[in-house]
From TrEMBL:
Name of the protein: Methyltransferase type 11 domain-containing protein
Residue span, Methyltransferase type domain: 60-156
InterPro entries per record: Methyltransf_11 (IPR013216), SAM-dependent_MTases_sf (IPR029063)
Organism, as annotated: Desulfofustis limnaeus
Source organism superkingdom: Bacteria
Length: 252
């Protein structure tokens, strides 16, 4: 699939891995967990996964630095997490080891758009804030549905950016500098070119794709700040990101 004249999907993924999800960004990304509410995310996920037996091994796609992985373990699940970025996975291993979770987690490098997992085996697939980063998000959704067992549950949390005013942009750059202890990295020419080419599907489009892929009991809803990281984090980050949740179930 051609993303634009200059890059195809593999180029986009390499650029994202090298320029967006590299060691520097992994460190910065991880520090945002200081502003995150573990309890709110735990409440949200345990509600969404209420029908999935405790002890089951869930599949987390784009597991990042392990924030959601750790919460899933605290809910009683085992987790197989995959991520494109070795730098993000290295952070995840460190965080999960510090939290004493590694005996319930398997992490590996992998591509959401071509999952290295057998079909029809997992009780639940979870992803948070992954789909907007992908050149071919529909391919990733098809992969998630493929690996679900009959009756299995898919929970995708994603979001959409909204335009930030100048004041909000500076505020979020300042927060980034304080959290990371570095100047913002505005020098990433290739990433700047491709980021406008990412499809960034909206919630209804994701729900629509999942319906076409045969999922049932589909639901889509916006997540208010009070159910996620709270208004303070949103304000500090420039209030530019609105999360939503799409879920569904594979028929038995
Ligand atoms: C915004 S971060 C979200 C991380 C984590 N899910 C969380 O909620 O904290 C996006 C993650 O998706 C990963 N990612 C990007 N493209 C991917 C792909 N094609 N396959 C797997 N992971 C990918 C990135 O490396 C990064 O860790």
């Amino acid at each position: 699939m051609s993303i634009n004249a200059a890059y195809d999907a593999q180029d986009v993924k390499s650029i994202m891995r090298e320029e967006r999800w590299n060691q520097r960004h992994a460190r910065a990304y991880d520090r945002y967990r200081w502003l995150s509410s573990r309890q709110r995310w735990r409440d949200l996920l345990s509600r969404e996964l209420a029908d999935v037996a405790v002890g089951a091994e869930l599949f987390e796609v784009g597991s990042g630095t392990g924030f959601i992985t750790e919460i899933l373990v605290s809910c009683g699940y085992r987790v197989q997490g995959i991520d494109l970025s070795p730098a993000m996975l290295a952070r995840a291993s460190r965080n999960l080891a510090a939290a004493g979770c590694m005996n319930r987690v398997r992490l590996s490098v992998g591509d959401a758009e071509a999952l290295d997992a057998p079909s029809g085996q997992v009780e639940a697939v979870v992803s948070r804030w992954l789909l907007w980063t992908l050149p071919q998000p529909r391919r990733a959704l098809a992969e998630m549905v493929r690996i679900l067992a009959p009756g299995g549950v898919l929970v995708c949390i994603d979001g959409q950016f909204q335009e930030m005013g100048a004041f909000a942009r500076w505020r979020s750059a300042l927060v980034d500098m304080v959290l990371t202890g570095r100047l913002p990295d505005w020098r990433s020419p290739a990433y700047s070119q491709i980021k406008g080419a990412l499809p960034c599907l909206d919630g209804p489009a994701i729900a629509n794709s999942l319906q076409q892929l045969g999922l049932v009991d589909l639901s889509f809803r916006w997540l208010p700040a009070k159910d996620t990281d709270g208004k303070v984090k949103n304000w500090l980050m420039g209030s530019a990101w609105n999360s939503y949740l799409v879920s569904g179930r594979k028929p038995k």
